[in-house]
Amino acid sequence: MLLVAQPELGAAEKRALCETIDSGWVTMGPRVRAFEEAFAARHGAADAVAVGSCTAALHLILAALGVGRGDEVLVPSLTFVATANSVLYVGATPIFVDIEALDRPLLSLAGAEAKVTTRTRAVILVHFAGRLADRAAWREFADRHGLYLVEDAAHSIGIDEVGSYGEAAAFSFYGNKNMTTAEGGMVLARSPEVLERVRRMRGHGMTSGTFERVSAREAGYDVTMLGYNYRMDELRAAIGIVQLKQLAEWNERRRDLRAAYVSELARACPATLIPFNDDGPSAHHIMPVVLPPGVSRPAVAAFLRDAGVQTTVHYPAVHQLSYYRDRLSEVRLPVTEAFCERELTLPLHPRMTQAQVADVVEVLAGAIRAQGRQP
User: Fold this and answer.
1) How far is CA 29 from the centre of its chain?
2) 11-242 is classed in which CATH architecture?
3) Does the N-terminal or the C-terminal CB of the chain have fewer CB atoms within 10 Å?
4) Which residue in the list 14, 115, 177, 245 is annotated as catalytic?
5) Is 245 assigned a catalytic role?
């Protein structure tokens, strides 16, 4: 089966894990700190905080900014559910905003303008598929309305300007991301004070961690704020240090594979829409396409699966998931809903070849033709 995503893990990661185990220290310690420093340097930031997941990163960012009960946060519905969940974690209300267009599935600036109220405190931008949102436009919007601007950068690790839009950015190292630590996340923040609050909150609000107390030979600590158990461990950090060194090469490989997809789809599937069909800044995290109207996505997915090609969906609209639908039944986002009904994610990862790209597109064309439609 040709998978939608496949991590690059090899001998270097195994050596790093063995060295960490042999060191005798596997909880948060010097490797986590080294990973934070390397990640910050890679993204042109002064510092970073490693955490257990991107979800934890989003939660801590909002909490550190003081977003809470009574506040509203503008979010896309075209995202993984964690984006909206993190707003609920701090007691605020997620306000779902539509996307711009089927071929540009990013948060709509006009839609956000229409939903700003006196209770709006922040907006979370999701760089869907790795494509960066318009930095200048969103910066102006946030400044004009006095809003915190937060980046959900789970899809866009390692590219210029990511993490520099507003107050803070959350990154993911989940197993299907452009680089992985299996589970894990990272926070970048403009303000050193916000970053320090995130750092303190990830470990129960404690003034020192176990490694610091061992190193300083001090047994005591204080708890200065409500915190959480959102730490990263040394094993994941060791993998992250290795992975980060290969990130630029892998992202470039993804760019080349996506270019091959664009060429092959234009030839064999001209009625299939390719979002972001231009050369804007992107980490090319996934390869989404929008199937022609009237084509059954489940039938296409089954056809590809039978041919040995995995596909998936990014994403079911969050406002239509049962938990949110039961609470927000009045929400209507026509562009998001149309996109989510027709989107299909094709395989894209550095282990693929351009010949495999061509094969996937040929199978996709055959799947659409099997329904009596033009691909």
Assistant:
1) 25
2) 3-Layer(aba) Sandwich (3.40)
3) N
4) 177
5) no
